[in-house]
Amino acid sequence: MISRITGKIIEKGVNYLVLDLGPLSYDVLIPSCVMQKINELNYFDGKIMLLTYHYSQVDQAKSIPVLIGFLNKIEKDFFEIFITVSGIGPRAALKALNKPISLIAQAIDEGDLVFLKSLPGIGEQRAKEIVAKLQNKVGKFGLIQDRALPAKSLAKDIAQEALEVLLQLEYKRNEALQMIKQVLEKNRDINTTEELLNSVYKQKLNG
Fold this sequence. Notes:
207 residues, DNA polymerase, domain 1, 5 strands, alpha+beta, CATH 2.40.50.140, 5-stranded antiparallel sheet
């Protein structure tokens, strides 16, 4: 069981890091709420230490080891309690946790189904199950100081990451910058690179 991992960041995607550990490199999946914080922090020489949730994903009779990374124990603890809800496995939780943990915890305690339904992959029934299972059990997570990320700085990080992806997809730099600018001007509520890229794609389809 891999409980933590330290390595140099050699690749960063929308929801993953590739860490170089010397003779080995590991893919580590990262929830959006954690990736937002990683984008705000500077790491000496690109090195980072992550606590990890390690599980095996069974796919067509194959068992694939998967690592999900967190910056601290409180983030990992919240992830582990979140996946105790029926129907929410590690992959679903990874996708759903795209807003600050403190806000998600607050929504659970207040029974805010509208907020919970805004999380990717969480419908009304699942939101009700989350409240039923976790209400009055996640108060300490509401104290996390993770909702003060500067909006302008965060938007800049998201735009830069989206630009890197579009350049990898062989779009010209000026074209990519223009597409990103148009989307952000129309959608000021975007807070992840994945949302931004999806909006760029939809905009391109609609011409």
